Amino acid sequence: MTKVFDAYAAYYDLLYCDKDYSAETQFVHDLLVKYGVPASGILLELGCGTGKHAEGLAKLGYSLHGVDMSPAMVDIANERKHFDVSKRLGFAVGDVRDVRVGRSFDAVISLFHVASYQTTNADLFAMFQTAMAHLNPGGIFLFDCWYGPAVLSDRPVMRVKRMHNDAVEVLRIAEPVMHPNKNIVDVNYTVQIKQKGEECVTELREKHSMRYLFALEVELFLEQAGMRKVESVEWLTGKTTGFESWSATFVAIKEG
Length: 256
Known about the structure:
Strands 1, 2, 3, 4, 5, 6, 7, 8, 9, 10 and 11 form an 11-stranded mixed sheet that branches. Helices cover 29% and strands 36% of the residues. By secondary structure, it is α/β, with parallel strands linked by helices. A hairpin with a 3-residue loop joins strand 6 and strand 7 (168-179). It has 2 domains: 2-147 and 212-253, Vaccinia Virus protein VP39 (Rossmann fold), CATH 3.40.50.150; 151-211, S-adenosyl-L-methionine-dependent methyltransferases (N-terminal domain of TfIIb, Single Sheet). 37% of the residues are buried. The protein has helices at 2-15, 21-34, 52-59, 71-79, 121-133, 148-153, 215-225; strands at 42-46, 63-68, 89-93, 105-110, 135-147, 159-164, 168-179, 184-195, 201-213, 228-234, 247-253. The model has no long low-confidence stretch (mean pLDDT 93).
């Protein structure tokens, strides 16, 4: 999986340049404040990617340490730290299932469906244990995931995405295969990358296995890890989750 994300890193920001990071960081900020995490709080991000969410949260006042299993992603995150927030940001390579950074935080966050990449019960529980191990008493764990009722009601279909910038053109085809008895969707990507002014096209093939989760199983895993779920809402809208909520956000607390 690390190799998949290292290849992914080269065009990740281009493919998601239409993603509203400002609105997403504000959504996370509002939920953290709601549950008592101050804007000056110290956060751990599990699966930080190229650091865009972290940068946005640092601009709101948070200090944040991000970990990601892809060295290429972490390199990009470190390269793009802006001077005005650089003292509040740090990034390192680490696996969300077993990383231990030797300090505790006011909140642990994990965004853009990192939890859904934990396709086995052991992996998901290990990720939750990582969150628990790094929280101060009363600290908050906030994460999003693919939400089962919506995935089964509005099943994934083949999608094509084309993006470009001044240097490169990227075509990505996503072909899903569902495994109903495992609650997993294999998203098979074919990615064609063409440097502008050149005829050669580079093609990559990747498989991203994504687990869709249900509220009761999430509550159970959180409880087993020592946390209590306090809220679940639709990602970005804050509405009650339902059959149209492909992405759900869960908030849990470490009591003590």
